[in-house]
Amino acid sequence: MSLMHFCLLIFFCKSRKQRYVYGTILDSIAKVTGIIKFDLQAEPETGKSKLEVGGNVKGIYNLGPGRFGSEAIFVPRKPGTASEEDDGYLVLFVHDENTRKSSAHVIDAKTMSADPVAVVELPHRIPYGFHAFFVTEEQLQEQAKL
């Protein structure tokens, strides 16, 4: 891992102490090559340097050679219900520079499995740096009233 950037905090947890944060892994030219999950409440492993204390890596999702992505967004598995903080999905856009195709990857945020929940091929290229945001249908309806 060259760099880690763009920490993703889970917005529905904003009134309580968070346990997990997600970040993007960047290569040497600042392209996103993967997503990393940290557990901020786990005890640090012995032998870690001062800079490594404060969060243990709980999972890494690598995009693979020639694939670069966007910052992920967190989507709760069941929006509006009480559940574990990491019970949901990470969604990010990925561009494959070898095939010149773009896709949306859906990752299980709890397990960070190398096998995505879904990969949806997109009809057009999604540029690097593209951002997204998740809203529930209820939130959309509230905005429509404004």
Structural class from helices and strands? mainly beta
The chain-level mean pLDDT equals: 82
Helicity range: under 10%
The number of distinct structural domains comes to 1
Low-confidence stretches: none
**N-to-C order of helices and strands:** EEEEEEEEEH
Query: What summary fits the major beta sheet?
Result: 5 strands, antiparallel
Rg, rounded, reads 16 Å
Instruction: Tell how many strands the DSSP assignment holds.
Output: 9
For this structure, the quaternary state is single chain
Number of helices: 1
Distance between the termini: 45 Å
- What would the principal axes of the Cα set say about the shape? flat
Cofactor: Fe(2+)
Catalytic activity: all-trans-zeaxanthin + 2 O2 = 4,9-dimethyldodeca-2,4,6,8,10-pentaenedial + 2 (3R)-hydroxy-beta-ionone
Keywords: Dioxygenase, Iron, Metal-binding, Oxidoreductase
Protein name: carotenoid 9,10-dioxygenase
Topology:
Layout: E1 3-8, E2 20-26, E3 32-39, E4 56-62, E5 67-69, E6 73-76, E7 88-96, E8 101-108, E9 118-122, H1 137-145
What features would you highlight for this structure?
single chain; 146 residues; mainly beta; five-stranded antiparallel sheet; four-stranded antiparallel sheet; 1 helix; 6% helix; flat; dioxygenase; carotenoid 9,10-dioxygenase; metal-binding
What would you note in describing this structure?
One of its GO terms (biological process) is carotene catabolic process. It catalyses: all-trans-zeaxanthin + 2 O2 = 4,9-dimethyldodeca-2,4,6,8,10-pentaenedial + 2 (3R)-hydroxy-beta-ionone. Its EC number is 1.14.99.n4. InterPro entries: Carotenoid_Oase. The chain has 146 residues and is mainly beta. It has one domain. Helices cover 6% and strands 39% of the residues. It has one helix at residues 137-145; strands spanning 3-8, 20-26, 32-39, 56-62, 67-69, 73-76, 88-96, 101-108, 118-122. The strands form 2 sheets. Strands 5, 6, 7, 8 and 9 form a 5-stranded antiparallel β-sheet that branches. Strands 1-2-3-4 form a 4-stranded antiparallel β-sheet, with no helix packed on it. A hairpin with a 5-residue loop joins β2 and β3 (32-39). The chain is flat, with a radius of gyration of 16 Å. The model has no long low-confidence stretch (mean pLDDT 82).
